[in-house]
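I am still learning, so can you show me any protein sequence you like together with the matching structure tokens, please?
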Amino acid sequence: PGPDARGAVLHQATFSVRSGRSTALIGRSGAGKTTIVNLLCRFVEPDGGSILVDGTPLGEIDPGQWRTNIALASQELELVDGTILDNIVYGHDTASAGDAERAAKLAEAHEFIEHLPQGYKTLVGYRGVNLSAGQRQRIALARALVRDPDILILDEATNAVDGLSEAAIVETLKSRAGRRTTIVISHHHSTISFCDDVVILSRGRVKKQAPFAALAKLSMDELYQHEAGE
């Protein structure tokens, strides 16, 4: 939304995400990060301004086609009442059990799944109640990765995962980034450590965009200081 929109969440939020690179979006709660995710996934449409994809307005791209190219792993993503396999391939009808297993390995989920009595046939229960928060997040990440998307969005996708598993996930994402465009939202420095660029948001505005290497030595609190233009 434009700067004159009353009650707008984003104001003059201009930034770029380089194709085939990883970009971190950081900022305190209420900075506008989740709104950007919702716009990119087309859960909502902007009432002002524009989102360009290789120069083409996002609104001119067929929503169905767009959603085949983008995948989201979010802390808010709910599991469906079915098996672990059902949840990993959910929304991706052509995915096989082998595809699900490969995605689970990338998400550091395969080992704990294999230790369950029913393995990939384990029922997760209503909203995944039979699994821990960290296990649910790894299943949600596997669901995003099984599609091998051109654009991957991680919205606090590992905030409930233990440190060792998170480190392994980050290393996997870094080593397999390849052609994929990745957008990472997190309050953890370790999670964004593999990113090429960082965008610092505050109250719906972009305060700074820079190569992550130039800011890598700063703590998250020091990065947030850019919100005040320090």
Observations:
- The CA atoms of residues 4 and 227 lie 21 Å apart.
- The first helix runs from residue 33 to 40.
- The two ends are 26 Å apart (CA to CA).
- Strands lie at 22-26, 52-53, 56-57, 70-74, 151-155, 181-185, 197-202, 205-211.
